[in-house]
Amino acid sequence: MVENAEQPAYPVGLRLAGRRVVVIGGGQVAQRRLPALIAAGADITLVSPSATPSVEAMAEAGEIRWERRRYEEGDLADTWYALVATTDRKANARASAEAERTRTWCVRADDAEAATAWTPATGRIEGVTVAVLTGTDPRRSAAVRDAIVEGLRDGTLAAPQHRARAPFVALVGGGPGDPDLITVRGRRLLAEADVVIADRLGPRDLLDELPPHVEVIDAAKIPYGRFMAQEAINNALIDHAKRGRSVVRLKGGDPFVFGRGMEEAQALAEAGIACTVVPGISSSISVPGAAGIPVTHRGVAHEFTVVSGHVAPDDPRSLVDWASLARLRGTLVILMGVDKIGKIAEALIAHGKDPATPLALVQEGTTAAQRRVDATLATVAETVRAQDVRPPAVIVIGEVVREAPDKHAG
């Protein structure tokens, strides 16, 4: 809280649920202030001969009572809090005087110095209310409020919880690799974490920003002995959460796009541990985009299909209908398929796909090491060997590969 006056206002949070609040004036000020009063559960009476359409809708919905008349002496009887916001300064002064006599805290929109209360600039995020007062400088209040809320939202202003809490895990999609491409919520949860269990393909640069007390665990190095690797990861999530720690499972891309996120969510649910899923920007769309390839384009592709390539087409474990994919006219995006791309290309050609179909491999997409290698279905196997293309790489198959941002310029 910031205040410039010689005698600063005393900040306090009013609990108005079920208590009488009177708003005088139904214009823009009331329109801005009423939602928060409604959310607080106040018993609200609006006194005004007219109102904006939004305020009128609140009355029609039963959220407030609307007395369609001008202010009259006695309107503030038995009132806990009043907002005076008409365009009639004389009426405002009379209402303010009544509030003074009845000891009702009163905000006066037209004259802050004459008011007995000021409305702070407020913001809310994840159960935290930020309220800022700068006396008679509301723009500065709003600017300070915005800076604090944005800092809490993106994690640059860390405010971890210190009271005892129930076990909790967040499955966070870290995006395609560039640390700037994680979601705002994901970055904030990372800043609040006690333990981070990270995938190899997660945005590694974000881990360097974590405070020294945060325990960072490489998921690939969790000892799993008699357990399968995924089961060992599930057990680690459950174990750390049951110790009362805030746990973030940081994944590359999106947790539910070939990320085994649902397996982890199910394991946590069976253990009775709360879990939240924070979607991430999937590499299936973002990496082609970073390389100048649109997965859809007007007149070229009206669809795109994302396929896992970690199992070859001739493997009996494959769940992919490669024959159907070969008949599609849209874009085919293959993840985790670099080492199987030769067999994938053969299968698509065998099922009727033109061998000359253009193809691009984008390695380490969105990072400083990004590179794009172009080929066709007929040449891709040899190109991968000759160019030493290695995972992680996203493979894009289709006519969109020929498009470029500047193709139609001029």
Task: Give an account of the 3D structure.
Helix 6 packs across helix 7 (261-270). A 5-stranded parallel beta sheet has the order 3-2-1-4-5, with helices on both faces. The longest helix has 17 residues, at 138-154. The protein has helices spanning 28-39, 53-60, 89-102, 138-154, 184-192, 229-242, 261-270, 283-290, 322-327, 341-350, 380-387; strands at 20-24, 43-47, 65-67, 81-84, 105-108, 121-125, 128-132, 168-173, 195-198, 215-218, 246-251, 274-278, 304-308, 331-335, 358-363, 371-376, 393-397. Residues 1-5 have low confidence and may be disordered. Helices cover 28% and strands 20% of the residues. The two termini are 55 Å apart. With 410 residues, it is of the alpha/beta class.
Radius of gyration: 30 Å
| Poorly predicted spans | 1-5
Helix content: 25-40%
Alpha-beta classification: alpha/beta
Descriptors:
410 residues, alpha/beta, five-stranded parallel beta sheet
Brief account:
Residues 1-5 have low confidence and may be disordered.
Topology:
Blueprint: E1 20-24, H1 28-39, E2 43-47, H2 53-60, E3 65-67, E4 81-84, H3 89-102, E5 105-108, E6 121-125, E7 128-132, H4 138-154, E8 168-173, H5 184-192, E9 195-198, E10 215-218, H6 229-242, E11 246-251, H7 261-270, E12 274-278, H8 283-290, E13 304-308, H9 322-327, E14 331-335, H10 341-350, E15 358-363, E16 371-376, H11 380-387, E17 393-397
